[in-house]
Amino acid sequence: MIDFSGVSMACAGTPAWDAVQEQVMPALEFHGCFEAVYNRVASELRLSLLGIAKDLLSLPLQTKLRNTSDAPYGGYLGQFPGLAYESLAIRDATLPHAIPNFASLMWPSGSNPNFCEKARSFTEQVAELEEMVRRMVLESLGVAKYAEEQMQSTYYLLRFTEYGAAGEWEEEKRKLAHMAHRDTNMLSIVCQLNEVDGLQVEAMDGEWHLAAPRSVASFFVIAGEAFHAWSNGRVYASMHGVAMDGTVARYSAILFSRPMSEQTIQAPAELVDGDRPSLFRPFEYGDFLHFCASAEGRKLKKCRLSAYRREEDITKEDEA
Question: What SUPFAM superfamilies has UniProt attached to this entry (predicted)?
């Protein structure tokens, strides 16, 4: 557990910042995930978000299906056989128009100002946590000069999720709420909104651990495959999923930092040398997303990036 209390972007370079930074990189290098205590999001806001998430995800299916996206995994997700899972997403959630436009789509008869205000406040505060973590990683790797470039080439996607109560499914599927997978993006910040645990994370050694919050101000930070590739393997992208066996649904709000679709993911020259050659060929993030959503990609939950852009494939092609 890493305590971010009292630390902000304005603290960069201070002893307080450095003390937190020293913990962040080892956690993401060896586990790909850590629990962050971050008290900028008040408990009252979390409680409000729980009500908002329940109201949002209880809307009629035909309404939720309006949440579409040109990019895979960018809109409504649900109706998967054997999975009691639904979620809705807001792209560019930190931009002024994004949340009101989404609210107008879900509630055409009214703009739902309460939803807009609470979602906006949450997004702004959690985005700062994500930015701090990313900046700390780049500083630890000695490539902080790329921080601004990275921020300009990514956007935030806010997703509200519901994992149904186990009693709602067939007996043989009763513990599965979301298949184990790796996220495709840079970082994911998971906020558990109620007291229903279920997030499980696989460490690099293959051991699975229940990620249950130990503080009312806890978030879980999970690294994705884009960050793994950009860091030339130094940041570990952990497998994770949700498994439940209770009778109460689980709700969460997740903020994803995603590269722009046309953004090329390539490790900086400073992170590639003779001792650590390039692991992956450069690729456009949007192309990788489409691969992950393809029939082939969906079969490769554990090794999609390796199958898609492993550097050793170039050597094989050249030898052929």
Answer: Clavaminate synthase-like
The full set of domain ranges for the chain reads 2-319
The C-alpha atoms of residue 106 and residue 243 are separated, in whole angstroms, by 29
| Strand 33-37 relative to strand 2-3, pairing | parallel
Would you give per-residue pLDDT tens digits along the chain (320 residues)? 999 998 999 999 999 999 999 999 999 999 999 999 999 999 999 999 999 999 999 999 999 999 999 988 889 998 888 778 899 999 999 999 999 999 999 998 877 999 999 999 999 999 999 999 999 999 999 999 999 999 999 999 999 999 886 554 444 444 444 678 899 999 999 999 999 888 999 887 888 888 999 999 999 999 999 999 999 999 999 999 888 777 788 999 999 999 999 999 999 999 999 888 999 999 999 999 988 888 887 777 666 777 776 644 444 433 33
This prediction's pTM: 0.91
Rg, C-alpha atoms of the chain = 19
